[in-house]
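Worked Example 4.2. Read the sequence first, then its structure tokens.
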Amino acid sequence: MLAPRKKLWSTPKSAIMTASRLANIGKGDVVYDVGCGDGRVLIGLASSQFNDADADADADAIGCQCTNYVGIEIDADRAEEARQNVLAAYESGSLPRKVRIHIMCANALEVDYNEASVIFLYLVQRGLRLMKPILLRGRDSHSCGTKSTYVNGASSTDVQQRQCNGSNLNVSRRTLRVITYMSPFEDEKYVKRELCEVDHQRGAAWPLFLYHF
């Protein structure tokens, strides 16, 4: 088991919004959710990119929003539930038609993540240990400073500047932004940590961690 399986452990909306802000998701990104369950994280992340934008608008022409999302779910019933929830979001108008959310029923340890630029992980510690070498495979390690908006050592030809939601982000094209919820990677320095309050547990605030791989 990589992720919490009970529905009561589903990712709260506040964590989804915090993850979106930490990762600074924008146009050109490909966002993966490992252990996507009912699809709420993907739908929430995609919806947060457009806010009140017209669901029938050309998403590629609106600012710098991300339009590509992939969910990985090993349980066939949950994967189908996620697909149905995505369809319902399109039909309700909360997701623009240009947004592509693909749900894969697959073992996350056997998936190729080379096209991913942002990955969301709400996994148990064992799951994080198993996923880390897979995510690092084929990627150069970057030495990150104390500021989450820069990756040290990237040349001007390797850096893309994204201006979204009034903020600037300089990130190497080879950098993978990974967000973990609740649990951090062992023996890996995070770029930023942020707490988010959750509605289902008054007074509680749970951490999200941003990593650059």
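Now turn to a second chain, presented in exactly the same format:
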Amino acid sequence: REYVEGLLNLHNGSVFSVFAPGTSQQMSKMKILSAAILLPVANAFIPSSTFVQRGTSSLSMGVDPNLDLSGNTWKPTEGRMQSTDTGDYLPEGYVDDLEFSDGMLGSQAGLSSSQRSGPELPGMENLGEDSIMMGGIELAEGIPEGMEFIPASVPDDNYDLAMPITTTGKLISIEIKPFCMGYEDYYAAFAAGSHPVFKIQDGAIGRMDRRGGEYTYIDVMCDPRGQGGPGTYEATLVVNIPEDDSKLTYTFTARVG
């Protein structure tokens, strides 16, 4: 108890003696140690008398007469929805007169399907017509040297013809639906053993559109005049697509009488 009271007296700033068992030398060491521990703690509760003055500054706006602080005066039209964002791609003077009742197609609603295939913005109707082609893709001009036209075991289509001996010939147009993933060059020719009454009139070499694109047409003419009179003539047309590693086979049978 006497030791605790001595510590409290030191906190109050008074000089004290600790009454604890031991010699006077031990008591002196304990006094010095207690003072070193409690003095910083006691100082923490003493209020600081230092006064800090904080500086203030002011910012003035509107001194420059050219500074416009009026803000945006736009207000939405009552009863309808509008967008305040106008894209930079719209031509100068473009007026958007569409209404919500025009439907999903907007300004294209009143046009036919062929008219909707072109540019939708005014002033761009002839897009690409006056362009200059640099480079481009070159089409094949002839059948590659050494290419063989070997028919498949199962033909893709058969054409049976019956015609009189006096006929001037008959044209067969083969319609090929594109099936490749990209644009592919093709080469068409009759296989060995085909009768010469059949000849390719148009479309022997070309580029086939990709899947879902336009059809390819190959025109074959059958003209039995001057070929030995009545009889049955046969031929096999092979269409090679080398880059796609595929081919098409068409058989022809003409009965002339």
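Notes for the reader: The radius of gyration is 50 Å. The longest helix spans residues 24-43.
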